Amino acid sequence: MELITIRELYREKEKFIGKEITVGGWVRSIRDSKAFGFIVLHDGTYFETLQIVYHDTMENFAEVSKLNVGSALIIKGELVATPDAKQPFEIQAVSIEIEGASQADYPLQKKRHSLEFLRTISHLRPRTNTFQAVFRVRSLIAYAIHKYFQDRDFVYVHTPLITGSDAEGAGEMFQVTTLDLEKIPFTPEGKVDFKEDFFGKATNLTVSGQLNGETYAMAFRNIYTFGPTFRAENSNTTRHAAEFWMIEPEIAFADLKDDMALAEGMIKFVIRYVLENAPEEMKFFNEFVDKGLLERLTHVMNSDFGHVTYTEAIELLEKNNDKFEYKVSWGSDLQTEHERYLTEEIYKKPVFVTDYPKDIKAFYMKLNEDNKTVAAMDLLVPGIGEIIGGSQREDDYDKLTARMDELGLKKEDYDFYLDLRRYGSARHAGFGLGFERCVMYLTGMGNIRDVVPFPRTVNNCEL
Ligand code: 4AD
């Protein structure tokens, strides 16, 4: 069946005015008087809705008038210009076919529902304006990220989701097993015997594709990954999900400066892409979700990001320790409150914090000459805090293995990774962008649960 979309109608109005067309969609609202009625139809292809006028000359007039919000319809009729109305055109229906009537207890009504309520119906919330905007923009951001890297000849690498190593060394993994939990086999030492398991060893869902990505960077030079990532982090916050998507570029013959330039270029490119390609949705966010969003993003696109070392950042934060729940001093990890203070109060724009103490960062980061800090960077943005974490990698075999020993990591679990340092090691760097945090930043949505179609967080795995 050839259905014309509302998006096409807005794009090529002249082509369709005065013509008979067929459209399909869901009822947003419906009202009737004796001889005629109005339906506001939404078809999911565009932010705008379409008004349908229908008359009692239609044989199923009474049946249509009884329809509830949410019903799925196919409508044939003439598209007429309505220069004096709010909408530029409407359809004078000739026929209305009821594909599927909606029951009277349809949970979405014309009023504004709270985001909390909508979270309880994640299968229906994409039919609301807010989630139409969120998930269309999420889709565009994903495309823009691919475009940014593909335009620069980066190779997209699909890293595995099931792995045998902990890329971050933080132990926040979901175990993968086919063992019968009722009859777990144990070794004589009392440990679970994974030899009996599917892979013959302990495995888990990936926390990052970085280590695999590095191997491809040592073959293709510039690569990126874009895929699901899993963390069994017991953080019940508005920015943590157990399942999220991450983009991890890795660049060879490159240092931390190159890495930051790549990240800054990517963020600016994606902002521009979304402002140009989803103007209605972005206007909607600016009006209903986060006033000032458009001004802020435009400013970010046109100015340089800030740079500060961790040591300098701590000095700045220490002066304001009275404002924080967690007091900072050199060596402490930055909490969201500190990150937000730096980017919102001090810099008032995105800022890279670099050169963190080695003890609060992952084992693979390149040791600086001071032997205390590593060539790491986090990108902090107003409203969220950290959206990117990255570093130059330790490419020296001896230094890397020494660090692994210090941390008690088993070298045999990382054989492939250490090989890279044996066979033509080269300077390289990369970062991970949390996709959902990027979507939050670009839409102004305040909770990660509202930018993931079906969120997985602590105690929540519905649908
Ligand atoms: O800083 P992280 O842990 O870095 C890595 O995983 C590196 N392997 C990246 C690399 O250098 N290739 O995570 C990177 C980003 C964070 O900045 C954050 O945006 C996001 O991933 N992230 C999460 N997003 C949602 N929920 C969580 N639980 C997240 N944990 C990290």
Automatic annotation (TrEMBL):
Highest taxon of the lineage: Bacteria
Keyword Ribonucleoprotein: no
Enzyme category, top tier: ligase
Gene Ontology molecular function, alphabetical: asparagine-tRNA ligase activity; ATP binding; catalytic activity, acting on a protein; nucleic acid binding; transferase activity
CDD domains for this protein: AsxRS_core (cd00776), EcAsnRS_like_N (cd04318)
GO biological process: asparaginyl-tRNA aminoacylation
Keywords: Aminoacyl-tRNA synthetase, ATP-binding, Cytoplasm, Ligase, Nucleotide-binding, Protein biosynthesis
Cross-referenced Pfam families: tRNA-synt_2 (PF00152), tRNA_anti-codon (PF01336)
EC number, as in UniProt: 6.1.1.22
Location(s) in or outside the cell: Cytoplasm
InterPro entries: Aa-tRNA-synt_II (IPR004364), aa-tRNA-synth_II (IPR006195), aa-tRNA-synth_II/BPL/LPL (IPR045864), Asn-tRNA-ligase (IPR004522), Asp/Asn-tRNA-synth_IIb (IPR002312), NA-bd_OB-fold (IPR012340), NA-bd_OB_tRNA (IPR004365)
Primary location group: cytoplasm
Reaction catalysis annotation: tRNA(Asn) + L-asparagine + ATP = L-asparaginyl-tRNA(Asn) + AMP + diphosphate + H(+)
UniProt xrefs under PROSITE patterns: AA_TRNA_LIGASE_II
GO cellular component, one term: cytoplasm
Gene3D superfamilies the record matches: Bira Bifunctional Protein, Domain 2 (3.30.930.10), Nucleic acid-binding proteins (2.40.50.140)
Residue ranges of coiled coil: none
Record domain Aminoacyl-transfer RNA synthetases class-II family profile: where: 135-453
PANTHER family for this protein: ASPARAGINE--TRNA LIGASE, MITOCHONDRIAL-RELATED, ASPARTYL/LYSYL-TRNA SYNTHETASE
Family stated for the protein in its record: Belongs to the class-II aminoacyl-tRNA synthetase family.
Subunit-level organization: Homodimer.
Record's protein name: Asparagine--tRNA ligase
